[in-house]
Amino acid sequence: GMEGGFARQGEDTDFTYWTGYKDARKNNPGGYIFIAYGKGYSSTIETMVGVDIKGIITGVKILFQQETPGLGVKIQKIRRGESEPWFTRQFIGKSVLDDIAIIKDNGVIDAISGATISSRAVTKSINDGLKKLVENTGGETFFKETEAVDTSAAGAQTEAEKEEIRKIKMAELERVGEVIQASSTDFVAQCYELFELPPLGCLVKTRDSEGELLAVVYNATTSSIEPGRRPIARGKDEASEEALYRESPQLEKLFRSEFAALVVGHREGDKIYQYLPPKPARIHSFVYLCPAEEVKEFSRTFDFLSTLLNAHLPVSLEEIISACLRQMSRAHEDPRKFLVAAGKELAVLLSSEFNRLKAILERIKSD
Predict the structure, then answer these.
(1) What is the per-residue pLDDT across 317-337, written as a single tens digit (0 to 9) for each?
(2) What is the pLDDT of residue 70?
């Protein structure tokens, strides 16, 4: 126990931590605590890390995150029969002498399937924080310098090198599904895990034979794997939905979650075009969430709004457009400014359709 309490240290530096003392006079330190901050897919993930006097991690707890529902949020998921999140439990017992990085980065931490960005953000922030703690507490002997691998496009001259860099960047994205049906205007993708669907209106991308397709998610379904067979109610005697699935684990194998996305543009090389690509997506090609930087780049112009407004979809276009704009606004430094600009563009496009314009504007107005 830390009978002497904790003392905050490092206020005048870029790294603040707390030292726990075993005695009231604070002469006998017993461990440390620091807060790690990692830039995830859609939020800054804050993680509290406990470290013993030897520099070994004793506890990890996610304090704050707003990652993608069903994907990045799994950094806090507790598996059935366990009492703590499996992802953060991997850090217990590790020190700076270990390779605290995700396996994809040649480390020892198993990343969450489909949530590489969130997994890497937490892992890197903990590793960086632990190194700073060791440096600040005089434990340089635990410090192990690692060489960063430069995967930037700088210096890449050949097409082969550019393609290799593209593959590396694609591998870092959050995979949300796999194309099982495709046409020139849209595609349907199946998720690998039940209910792990991307948000309505978000921008996703996949590959065709010549480049990347950019699309907006407009519908999602969870249904029986067997066509025409509907599920029956099973939870009458169960205390919760979680208990139902725990008692009947086969249920997750009987259903599948799918989403449909409308193609709104494509990328060839470094340039984005907001019109249909020459060819549709390939069957079994992977679908990824577009990172915030790409969403921001894509939404610098509003040509895609015409594609959305003229689409024939089984769901309300007003709902899809407003959801899309809300999602895109999160990638901009000033979301309200973006939404105002989008509203002005819509006012031109829907100048003779006041009711449609009003329906969209009501759904994107700032609180």
Answers:
(1) 999 999 999 999 988 989 999
(2) 59
Distance CA 249, CA 251 (A): 5
Taking each continuous run of H as one helix and of E as one strand, the counts in the chain are: 9, 12
pLDDT in tens, 66-84: 876 655 567 777 766 667 7
Dihedral (CA of 340, 345, 351, 355) sign: negative
* Residue 206 DSSP SS3: strand
User: Is residue 148 scored above 70 in pLDDT?
Assistant: no
Six-digit token string for 271: 């340039």
If one compares 20 and 209, the residue with the highest pLDDT of the two is 20
Do you know the residue count of the chain? 367
Q: How far apart are CA 333 and CA 161, in angstroms?
A: 32
Burial class (CB in 10 A: 0-12, 13-18, 19+), 181: middle
| CB distance 49 to 33 below 8 Å | yes
Check: CB of residue 93 under 8 Å from CB of residue 50.
no
The phi, psi pair for 200, rounded to 5°, reads -60, 130
Please spell the DSSP secondary structure of 18-46, one letter per residue: EEEESSTTS-SEEEEEEEEEEE-SSSEEE
> Measuring CA to CA, which residue among 230, 231, 199, 235 is closest to residue 217?
199
**Which of 56, 36, 31, 55 is CA-nearest to residue 47?**
36
- Bridge partners (DSSP) of residue 204 are 215, 289
Dihedral (Cα; 175, 181, 184, 187), 10-degree rounding: -40
Q: What does pTM read for this prediction?
A: 0.58
CA within 13 Å, CB half, 158: 3
Q: Which residue has the tokens 């310098």?
A: 145
CB 36 within 8 A of CB 125: yes
355, burial (CB in 10 Å: exposed 0-12, middle 13-18, buried 19+) = exposed
